[in-house]
Amino acid sequence: MNASLTRREALSTAATWLGSSLALAGSDSPGRSSYQLATFSVDVTPPIGHACMGGGIAPVQRIDDPLFVHGFAFIGAGKPIVLASVDWCEIRNDAYDRWRAALAGAVETQPERVLVTSVHQHDAPIADLEAQRLLQQHKSAGSICDLDFHERTVLHVVKGVRECVQSPRTITHIGIGQAKVDKVASNRRYLGAGGKPQFGRMSATRDAGIREQPEGTIDPFLKTISFWNGEKAVAALSCYATHPMSYYGKGGVSSDFVGLARKRRQADDPAVFQIYASGCSGNVTAGKYNDGAPEKRPVLADRLYQAMNAAWRATIRHPLKQVSYRTVSLRLEPRNSAGFTREDLTKRLTTDPKPFGQCLAALGLSWRKRADAGHRIDVPVLDLGVAQLLLLPGESYVEYQLLAQKLRPHSFALTMGYGECAPGYIPIERAWEEGDGNLHDWCWVAPGSERAMTAAIEAALKK
Hints:
- This protein is α/β, with parallel strands linked by helices.
- It has twelve helices and 24 strands.
- Helix 2 (93-107) runs parallel beside helix 4.
- It is globular, with a radius of gyration of 21 Å.
């Protein structure tokens, strides 16, 4: 797949999109509309002592800032459609099913019409119920999530969704706007000595030599889709592709710099409900512009906030004439190489001396159970006419997001990542060929996934 775009191509695509938007923009006068939107925000902060990042870093010791799920229920295009963006690291396997089924029940719709995405901050929980049960059954030292806390949280969110749909707002227009984000994202891949690809540019990169390398393949734009009742904005969903961490692993729960930017944007105009989602950023971090110092968090937050403001100023409204929703079924084959067979994972679960190693094995086994049973992943798209809202699974690489835009060059394709997170990293084939070190553990899909991902994206965005 040749999905990546150069900076010049990205800017050209933005100019093409803007010209199309000006040509398509219609009357701002409100009229009759059968569409409605109800927004919700619910606290999902974990308790002290809860595991963060699936047991991979220090558990919760303090709450630096609370975590939330922000979302909406869209009414009027068949059965309701729900979107929930959760300030958690990941929601996987049967936990993902539980969220979708519960939110579907809250608005009397189908689970297939519920989009759940994790923002992916690392000082936050991972939810995988089967994996946690496996750890408990084997009396392992590792811990991924508290089952009771998870269920209480889901029911708390259900209550918030039920309350919100009692007071929906009429939606007559859709707004679309985008802006370049300055000095935040960089690809994990960079060229080292002799031009050999390296993959060590993490969220906090302390090596100045690595930070000096070019940004690499990223999507430089933050995109915002907004919902309007005539000239009054009701809600805005912003999305940008980068791992959302500045510093982490010290026990302080936080929505990190993306949450701070969202909060600041919300304070600017309390009447416009703000949602933030992470784009496809499995291979994108802030590492070029972040050395992990705590003072960099507000700096990164300000840069993202400035882009949110710029995208809002660039927003153009379009009459909402027709809305459709569809899902494409995606099959990703489980990884079956050494260390990833059922037998190897079971052995690691019971013999790995490190609690996090046990957690990784449990996560792998939870996914294998579903994959071996023929489980398929939904790839949903909410089609708003001039804009499409697409959700991809796991830590999809940014090239998939760029492919979606390439497939719909005259539309506004906003792509979220971190849907069903069970597969872990979903790389392009080049990453396997070049020895991407990030695929050593947190990747449970086999080589060849790019073809399946490409086919699903093409089918989802087909006109």
